[in-house]
Design goal:
Blueprint lengths: L1 E5 L3 H12 L3 E6 L15 E4 L6 H11 L3 E3 L8 H11 L2 E4 L5 H17 L6 E8 L9 H13 L5 E4 L14 E8 L6 E7 L4 E7 L4 H14 L4 E4 H11 L13
Parallel strand pairs: 1-2, 1-3, 3-4, 4-5, 5-11, 6-8, 7-8
Antiparallel strand pairs: 6-9, 9-10
Helix pairs in contact: 1-6, 2-3, 4-5
Bound molecules: nicotinamide-adenine-dinucleotide (NAD).
Nicotinamide-adenine-dinucleotide binds next to α1.
Length: about 260
């Protein structure tokens, strides 16, 4: 597949390197000084975009006009999704966006939803989110933490909003049981760790996803670029995962266990 990479930073470089290893062709790498146009994309069949939160909406609107399918991994711009969606739909192009392209995170999110649903019957347990990333990350909490927080809110009536739990003195209002507390730490080179903690009077359940490197994000983004070919509209990684999970044999169709 012919690919263009927009945003030649840590993720852009990882995507380009993996694409070459996997036999794709990287026909264009566009940085902040290159204007986006069909010509600049040099015949690419898909674009993978990892730029910065403050530029991503404009970049995505400009890319929509080229009608080349776009996979966007930039985080922290979801408040502009409406404008980007309008552009994608107006041009009949395709966009798949996800704040975390690790397929492991997509699976993790489903488990978090199932666990949050269980909160309804377990009033003695509370739940909180914590994420850790490298010091170069500009947004907090991470896009993945926001996605997990929204997942929890949709799955339980016990929480009606989430808030970034402040450092320093404890704000009593933030301890309102209806608030889902989210905290973030920036240290060293951590590519991304997300914890979901269920805390009860006698025990604690910790669900953790740890990214080992950026390769998993790049792999998911490339897989999304292949999946997006021939589609139109706005998608998330969940759409791809739904396809994959649907492809698994259902319980009923599996061979019954041999009798003991
Ligand atoms: P980075 O700072 O290393 O790279 C960003 C790059 O974008 C830089 O090279 C910068 O010059 C370039 N850029 C800035 N403005 C541009 C423009 N107008 N056009 C083209 N390029 C432009 O950052 P990074 O670590 O590569 O992360 C990029 C984004 O991806 C961040 O928002 C980060 O949170 C996110 N991220 C997402 C995932 C995921 O799986 N979705 C994984 C890791 C990081």
């Amino acid at each position: 597949m012919k690919l263009a990479v927009v945003g030649p930073g840590r993720m852009g470089r990882e995507v380009a390197a993996l694409a070459l290893e996997e036999g794709h062709e990287v026909v264009a790498k566009l940085g902040r000084d290159t204007e986006i146009s069909s010509g600049a994309l040099a015949g690419a069949e898909a674009v993978v975009e990892f730029t910065l939160p403050e530029v991503a909406p404009d970049v995505l609107v400009a890319l929509a006009a080229t009608r080349v399918p776009v996979v966007s991994g930039t985080t922290g711009w979801s408040q502009h999704l409406g404008r980007v969606r309008e552009a994608v739909e107006a041009h009949g192009s395709a966009l798949l966006h996800a704040p975390n392209f690790s397929l492991g995170v997509a699976v993790f999110r489903r488990w978090v939803a199932a666990a949050a649903r269980a909160l309804g019957g377990l009033p003695e347990y509370d739940l909180a989110l914590h994420e850790v990333h490298h010091t170069g990350k500009v947004d907090a909490p991470s896009g993945t933490a926001r996605l997990l927080a929204e997942t929890v809110l949709a799955a339980t009536d016990r929480k009606d909003r989430w808030a970034l739990f402040p450092g320093g003195a404890v704000d009593r209002e933030a301890l309102d049981p209806a608030v889902l507390r989210v905290s973030a730490t920036r240290v060293g080179r951590v590519p991304g760790t997300h914890d979901v903690v269920f805390d009860g009077p006698d025990d604690q359940i910790l669900l953790r996803h740890t990214a080992r490197n950026r390769r998993g994000f790049a792999r998911g983004a490339l897989e999304a670029a292949v999946w997006l070919r021939g589609r139109q509209g706005v998608f998330t990684l969940d759409d791809l995962l739904d396809d994959r999970l649907d492809a698994l044999p259902s319980r009923a169709s599996r061979r019954p266990l041999d009798p003991p």
